[in-house]
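Long-time lurker. I teach an intro course on protein structure, and each term I like to show students one example going from raw sequence to a predicted 3D structure in token notation. This year I'd like something fresh instead of my usual example. Would anyone be willing to generate the tokens for the chain below so I can use it in lecture? Attribution to the forum is fine with me.
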Amino acid sequence: MRNELLLLSALLIAATALTSGDYGQSATASHVHSTTVHSNITGTTASPNTTTHSPNTTTHSPNTTTHSPNTTTHSPNTTTHSPNTTTHSPKTTTAPPAPTPSAKLTVGNYNLSDSGKLCFLAKVAMQIRVNSSKVNGTFIVQEHKTNVSGSCGEKVTDIFLSFNEGQIALKFRNNETSKMVYVETLEYDLTYAFKYGVSSNFSGKNESLWLFAAAEGHSYSCKAQPVYMGGGVHLDLSSLRIQAYNIKNNDFGTPDLCKADQPNYRVPIAVGIILIILIVIVVIAYLVSRKRRADGYQSL
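-- Reply from a regular --
Happy to contribute to a lecture. Here you go:
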């Protein structure tokens, strides 16, 4: 019982020391407290209770909280602005239509070959004359600005005279029955400004014609020949010599004259008849007067 009391006392002392903090201050050294208790009972020797307390060596690891630096990387603002590349197309001012400079009416040569063989010959001065309530003017066809194209067949030959302002088309017929070659279709198309700032279109077609007729192997010839196309439009041809089919030696055949160029014998015939009548009258008058004189002399 006493031993238990001694042990309890020692435990209380140790607890008190721990509570007061004296034990914590001497945490780095080992202290051995020995307590000797003498018993009041005579003749009894008690071995001392030796309690060895190992010091509390609590090691506090230092707080080594490592704070990683704020390394927030801000990407640079790389906003790329595309340059304004607005392309302005140049202003193309269209000039108002105007008549071409006046040209002289000249004779041009217009020829066409098919399969290496000359099948069309023309030598002519051409102009398109318009005389209407709205337009009054003349367009001259020029050789150096005109292209000749077409096709030559056994019975039909198509000729196209093309220029910037339009074209003139002719269809020749080779008639085996009549042994004649002539134009049966004449067509034209013209877009031209006879007045400044005003461009007009004119077109026309004549069919079932008997135009520029000549015998096979002959050429058609005329000093001046206007062809009326309708609507106040005339195709004026002058110094005309034209031939399709049977061209020999690359030259025109015998000319067949137009009616205007054919000699007119009516006037000379009429004049001759009148002269004959006058002569007859004079002779008769002379004979009558001579007879009267002869009768007078006999009466004397």
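Some talking points for your students: The longest strand covers residues 198-215. The two ends are 242 Å apart (CA to CA).
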